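Hey, can you fold this one?
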Amino acid sequence: MLASGLLRERITLESRQTTRDAVGGEDVTWRHEDDTWAAIDAISGREANVASQLAAVTSLAVVLRARTDVQATWRVRWGDRVLSVEAVLPSARKDRTTLLCSEGLNHSDQ
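Sure. Predicted structure:
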């Protein structure tokens, strides 16, 4: 069982919504899905070449109570930080869902 005391961080889950504009381009908006409690741990950090510039990229594990609706196209807002969900990992015990996230690559800022 996932102890509630471990879930100390308040986060917002958002899903990506894409619509076509009049000239065929894409308009991307983010729809609020849920506010929930999570445990967040840094996994690794590295530098990556993003748009011909070095950028710090952090990998984080975001642990939530078990849920089946979260998708890898979503993002997590954690205070003023935006995390891209890279993978959604269910628990074998079905008591939690772990989101492997990245910060610094900017795919969720669009």
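The radius of gyration is 15 Å. Let me know if you want another pass with a different chain boundary.
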